[in-house]
Specification:
This protein is of the alpha/beta class and 170 residues long. It has helices spanning 12-25, 73-90, 112-117, 161-168; strands at residues 7-10, 31-39, 49-58, 95-102, 124-129, 137-144, 152-155. Strands 1-3-2-4-5-6-7 form a seven-stranded mixed beta sheet. Strand 5 (124-129) and strand 6 (137-144) form a beta hairpin. It starts with 6 loop residues before the first strand and ends with a helix. It binds zinc ion.
Length: 170
């Protein structure tokens, strides 16, 4: 069967960089933005792909950075401006795909705090954790809007190694 579900394409070096940022920020949460391309399902069995081409680290501006995160709005706005200017000059090459943050002490699963902030269904979430005690897991999530209640998260698997390799060599 050639069909494949929606997936995130992100090179190993980017995952390693996010894990390193999470360790550097410990005991606080690190955060940053994911930039890349969105490839819709191709109609021939391959699901949608979010292809991360780079990550943009940001300061965590939340007043309780050990338990929450807030991507520095200055970094966020500057990135959106840069993407807009580049699109105007060269056509759409990269878009803001989502963001990442770490869980210093907890597993890489969406927390109650994350659920409360999951209000934009177009953004992908990457979570790194637990940072304490070694090599953290890196997981990815889509926001699922629910008309009748609060939004939820659905796991977004990483694409197969062959696709990851294609990114690395791109
Ligand atoms: Zn979280």
């Amino acid at each position: 069967m050639g069909a494949s579900a929606a997936a995130l394409i992100i090179g190993g070096s980017l995952r390693t960089a996010m894990a390193a940022a999470a360790r550097a920020a410990y005991p606080e949460e690190c955060c940053g933005l994911l930039v890349g391309r969105y490839l819709p399902a191709d109609g021939a069995g391959t699901g949608a792909r979010w292809q991360v081409t780079r990550v943009v680290p940001a300061a965590n501006r939340h007043p309780q950075p050990r338990r929450h995160f807030e991507v520095d709005p200055v970094t966020h706005i500057a990135l959106l401006r840069q993407l807009r200017e580049r699109e105007a000059a060269e056509g759409e090459i990269e878009i803001l795909l989502g963001h990442y943050h770490s869980h210093p002490e907890a597993a890489a699963l969406p927390s109650a705090s994350d659920l409360a902030q999951a209000n934009d269904p177009t953004l992908i979430w990457v979570i790194i954790g637990p940072v304490q005690g070694g090599a953290p897991d890196v997981t990815a999530w889509r926001v699922i809007p629910r008309p009748a209640g609060p939004a939820g998260f659905e796991p977004l698997p990483f694409a197969a190694a062959t696709e990851q390799g294609a990114v690395k060599n791109a």
